[in-house]
Design a protein that fits this description.
With about 150 residues, the protein is α+β, with helices and mostly antiparallel strands. The protein is about 45% helix and about 25% strand. The chain has one domain: Translation Initiation Factor IF3 (2-Layer Sandwich).
């Protein structure tokens, strides 16, 4: 009985601290997305003709986000009963958005106006003892277009 109580207390603490950490990360993401709104991120391969005289370079952003214990427990229950795993969906959403932001920050340092041909790579890193997700890595990369002095 004591083990069950300890498990439930740890589960509740994990839930509380996990939600707190996730909400802080989302607040940071929202603020940085507003600050970087001027750098367009576009998935199409070929930029419009007005960008043909721009310099280009590869930019990327990568992030690894770990799954907390609570999300692992919830996902295990979903595996039994089926359905969406919302806990993992928010994890992947935060990872994708963070990777894009890091790519945009690199492009801003280079003086880029736009990032074209944006792609994502997602991979699982490490596994916990229960063979759960562990951590997820998201890599975002694209071609940053930087105006030449004579192109304006």
């Amino acid at each position: 009985m004591i083990e069950l109580i300890v498990f439930l207390v740890l589960l509740a603490l994990g839930y509380g601290f996990g939600r707190l950490s996730e909400s802080r990360h989302y607040r940071s993401i929202f603020q940085r997305e507003q600050a970087l709104r001027s750098i367009a991120v576009v998935p199409i391969k070929i930029p419009p003709p007005e960008y043909l005289r721009h310099n280009s370079t590869l930019v990327s952003g990568s992030v690894v986000i770990s799954v907390d214990y609570f999300k692992t427990v919830v996902a295990s229950l979903r595996n039994i009963f089926g359905g969406r795993v919302g806990a993992y969906e928010s994890l992947l959403d935060r990872a994708r958005r963070e990777a894009i932001l890091r790519m945009q920050e690199e492009a801003r340092e280079l003086g880029a106006e736009t990032i074209y041909n944006v792609k994502y790579e997602t991979s699982r890193i490490g596994e916990n003892a229960a063979k759960g997700l562990g951590s997820v890595e998201v890599l975002a990369y694209g071609t940053a277009l930087i105006a030449c002095p004579d192109s304006k």
